[in-house]
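note to self: dont lose this again. the chain is below, predicted strucutre after it. 221 aa total, dont forget to put it in the shared folder this time
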Amino acid sequence: MGDWVDVKTWKRREHYRLFLKYRQPFFSVTVEVDVTNIWNRSRVEGEPSFFLVSVFHMLNAVNSVEPFRLRLRPRGVWRHDRVGVGPTIRRGDGTFGFARLDPAGSLGEFARLGHDAIAEAMSAAALEPANNGDDVVYHSVLPWFRFSGYTNALPGNDSIPRIVFGQAVHEGTRVKMPVAVEVHHALVDGADVGEFFERFNAELQRVPERSRGTKRQPKKR
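---
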């Protein structure tokens, strides 16, 4: 669900019209975030994986920032009420597939649905997107290295934000992770990306709810 943005009265109408003319209208920003809280949680036996916890909080932050829910359409600008995430999922043979994860009211619910979506993506033979719409943000994880900048392969015909996580690295008692955000400048400004990181950092720092029925025990190494 959603509605059309009235471009004629939109405060960004001139910026929107300007960047629509650009051959490459996307810009990218990479910021390192502190993921210590969710990293420690994911080390507890029975808790969701670090991937699912981090994506859950990232998606909450995305949906709280309206420009990340705007999409270019032939008629103008569409505003989604909410969006899901389309992550790449690594398969056993070293290739990857696509999944779709939608927002959920709790981490436990998100994790349960996420496990099924991930299993389906890992077993699929064809490389096909898990959805046919633009009500997602694209997401990848590069756990093999810590980067300070990143750009995506772009098809040139969409306005979907891309969010990429890098390797989580220990710095003393803290765990840091680079996060690259790439967005279409006709819809999203630098201040909007700043708001996303503010919301994401707040999500990461708050104590996440425990999964129902989970006992807090150290994970076996």
